[in-house]
Amino acid sequence: MAVTTYIVDKDGNQIDASTATVPSDRNFRGAWVLSGSVISEDLNKAKEIFADKIREARTPLLAALDTDYMMALEQGADTAAIVASKQALRDAPTAGDAATTIAELKAAWPACCGDSPY
Fold first, then answer.
1. pTM for this one?
2. Three-state SS string across 77-98, please?
3. How far does Cα 116 stand from its chain's mean position?
4. Which of 28, 69, 75, 94 has the most CB atoms around its CB within 10 Å?
């Protein structure tokens, strides 16, 4: 008995995987859109996924900076650099807003969030 594998796009549409033209890049699989037998990526949905990935990456970085900030306050040290780093992390989810392609979106990963997963 043959088993059929289906691919489901972001809107719940499905297609037999053996008949679909599937993107080789699966980083934004949650943004896939089915058009006939071709699967492409919805850029707006990919931007949401990108921003969520940044939020995930920045969470431990912000926590570490919070600790650094408190230690600097206790020691009477300058906190300006820490405050600037925290602001950069807060602004980071908008890094991909200007992207017009998936390649531009992946290239927009902000340095303040560490190594790019793309």
1. 0.87
2. CCCHHHHHHHHHHHHHHHCCCC
3. 9
4. 28
